[in-house]
Amino acid sequence: MIIDTVCTYCGVGCDISFEIENGRIKKAFAKKEGLVSQGKLCIKGRKGWEYLYSPDRIKKPWIRKSFIEKNIDRFPEKIKRKLNTLTDLDSDFYESDLTLAVEITAWKLQDIKNLYGPHSIAGIGGARTSCESSYLFQKFIRKYIGSPHIDNCARVCHSPSLKGMRATIGEGAATNPFDDIYKAEFIIVIGSNTTEAHPIVANRIFDVVKKGTDIAVIDVRNIKLSRIAKYNCIIPFETNLMVLNMIAQVILEEELYNLDFIRKRTKGFEEYRDKILNDPYADPDFFKTVKGYEYLSDMIRDIAREYATKRSLILWGLGVTEHTDGSKAVMAISDLALLTGNIGKEGAGLMPLRGQNNVQGTCDMGCLPYFDPDYKEPDEIGLMTPDIIDGILEGKIKALYNIGEDIAHIHPNQNKIHRALKELEFLVVHELFPNEITGFADIVFGVKSAYEKEGVYINAERRLHLSQPVVASDLPDDWEILRDIAFELGFDVYYRSSEDVWNEVRKVANERFSGATYRKLKERRLEGIQWPVKKEGTEILHKDRFRTPDGYGYFRYNQWEYRGMVKDLIEGNDFVYLTTGRIGIHYNNAVQTKRCGSLIGKNSEDVLLLSLDDRDRFNNAERVILRSDYGESAPLKVVYSGDIKKGTAFVSFHHPESRINFLFGDESDSYVKTARFKSVKVKVIPVLRSLPEEQVC
Ligand SMILES: Nc1nc2c(c(=O)[nH]1)N[C@H]1C(S)=C(S)[C@@H](COP(=O)(O)OP(=O)(O)OC[C@H]3O[C@@H](n4cnc5c(=O)[nH]c(N)nc54)[C@H](O)[C@@H]3O)O[C@H]1N2
Ligand SMILES: Nc1nc2c(c(=O)[nH]1)N[C@H]1C(S)=C(S)[C@@H](COP(=O)(O)OP(=O)(O)OC[C@H]3O[C@@H](n4cnc5c(=O)[nH]c(N)nc54)[C@H](O)[C@@H]3O)O[C@H]1N2
Ligand code: SF4
Ligand SMILES: [Mo]
């Protein structure tokens, strides 16, 4: 039997098919007619389902023993009577049946609400589960609990894309389908390691380069795509905004802009032009003063000319967003499209390569403190995750409800987060596997994963796919637990199926989803539909008007701030700047991928890449510890690489044992607090086998 569904990992959102024999998966593959997959899957698609058979799955709800002890005298009779049904799991947890775990959760949430008020409860998560679950999650926190504090992992990811794009063109989502890569004449890839993080999108880039399309890759190191780029543009850390403003200055100086488009479709051009032309950091010649990066002055001019005079696309990733000026850099990207009319048509436009299988959907569903479903204004604006953490430490937030976001591993400033999580009076987690956050939880609900349930997932090109169960599971879905707790709290919540929830979404978020029936989505499992969906879907946004209130696109100028590595280079200081990111085989906290025998292989630890040019400086050490102002990593295995520039370093963050996110502080995007995961100054401490003392380089 063959079952078609959608891949559970990245934001490419490949259609995926499973061959099932006697109820077990034999293999995963993609069908030729699959619109996103084009008949190919990356290794996580082909092998990343093996976690389903791991003995570590959380099978029944867990309740922390010390939590029972603390609350035992205050439990109502109904709960007290059933406590003898709890069974021992390990020294920390009991196992419970679902009903009792739901009753205890509801009682404790109500208790906290009564004692401290509804605003003392917050919700984080949702981007790995379906739209139905994330929709109900925000409704649960906002309506059933009465708190505005709801957020998801877009906070540490592409929130700056949402912010920057909404401020300029009114909509924070990709303007065109992935297949428009085939229609572009020139492509800029900035801050996206596409071959590792969005491999099936990268396939399209390889295809067009083979056929003669030119690409510019703007990164801080050599990545696989750099090898096929006409412009391999390696820039110093934290200079995206400067480089983007430089491209704009060249376009303005050489009058390569599209005046007709600017006049008809935009506002704020004159002010923007004057500011860019007068900005010393927007002059490409500035790089002539930055040692080792002088070549950028000419290269940036060439990129600007090609971008402006061709039908051009810009793809970007976290190398843009995870900085203090991430939102500003995204505004600068939009500015370039507005300046040249490279938007609202085929083969041109803006593609933020969003990360999680359903982070687009989870934002669309309103799991953000400042947006209701469909990006409507909420009654009250809630706290963003970093403020929720501060709120816990200040004693204002007492309970946290977490759905599939491992904040005890993947957020910055882990020393602080761990301290905060210990302060919580109540932490509820929905998870597939034990991970860092379950280590702090009072109640853990084991839930179905995407391959075991039905639901809508929205990929990075706004495409909806409906998943269906590939294997049977007795576990509850995320939304079912939320429904049952809400019911227990006294609300009339009667959804019988995920389709019931989705039909409510179609009404509440009707601007984007009114026409997206389950029926239509079932008929198009292998192609999906791009939102907004009325009768049909929408491939290209902004064709006639932008999605701002008045329909115009707005130029937004921001000056780059002199700082960091550029400052150190100009002052002639010694330094090591670290950036963090992904490798192809592991997915975020690696909780699923490390439980796939075919994936874990050689990649069982995070490897630090240092520059070959720094090998002597670090005594050719095989292992080093990194230390920043905030914390320390574990000893990390080193590979000296020709792809890394002197004074820079790269490491992945997949394994909690590496303690990478202990190195980061609270520095974050100035608008939306996305962590500055792409740049931190570190000391490199070789771990010397023969010498006991540390040597700091
Ligand atoms: N295999 C795999 N795929 C994934 C994931 C995974 O964990 N594993 N995670 C998913 C998620 S949640 C996301 S958000 C996406 C992320 O996908 P990407 O956005 O591609 O993610 P990263 O690897 O974090 O970083 C991208 C690139 O930014 C570069 N960079 C760092 N600093 C700078 C800078 O200052 N300027 C520029 N221009 N570039 C810089 C890095 O060198 C890196 O090549 O991937 C998704 N896909
Ligand atoms: N240093 C550094 N840190 C980073 C980043 C970086 O570039 N550098 N990138 C950041 C980014 S972009 C992101 S998005 C985050 C990602 O980090 P997380 O948000 O933690 O994402 P995942 O590890 O993909 O998923 C979290 C959990 O969801 C569970 N899960 C999977 N499916 C389901 C489901 O259907 N229901 C439920 N309830 N749970 C499920 C998985 O078991 C996993 O433990 O990491 C961030 N952290
Ligand atoms: S590219 Fe992403 S969606 Fe496609 S198979 Fe790989 S992990 Fe899955
Ligand atoms: Mo992400």
TrEMBL record:
Record InterPro entries: Asp_de-COase-like_dom_sf, MoPterin_dinucl-bd_dom, Mopterin_OxRdtase, Mopterin_OxRdtase_4Fe-4S_dom, Prok_molybdopt-oxidoreductase
KW 4Fe-4S (keyword) present: yes
Cellular component GO terms held in the UniProt record: membrane
EC number(s) given by UniProt: 1.2.1.2
Keywords on record: 4Fe-4S, Iron, Iron-sulfur, Metal-binding, Oxidoreductase
Record-linked PROSITE patterns: 4FE4S_MOW_BIS_MGD
Primary enzyme class: oxidoreductase
GO molecular function: 4 iron, 4 sulfur cluster binding; metal ion binding; molybdopterin cofactor binding; NADH dehydrogenase activity
Gene Ontology terms: biological process: respiratory electron transport chain
SMART domains named in the record: Molybdop_Fe4S4
Gene3D superfamilies recorded: 2.40.40.20, 3.30.200.210, 3.40.50.740, Dimethylsulfoxide Reductase, domain 2
Residue ranges constituting the 4Fe-4S Mo/W bis-MGD-type domain according to the UniProt record: 1-56
Any one Pfam family match given in the protein's UniProt record, by short name: Molybdop_Fe4S4
Protein name per Swiss-Prot or TrEMBL: Formate dehydrogenase alpha chain
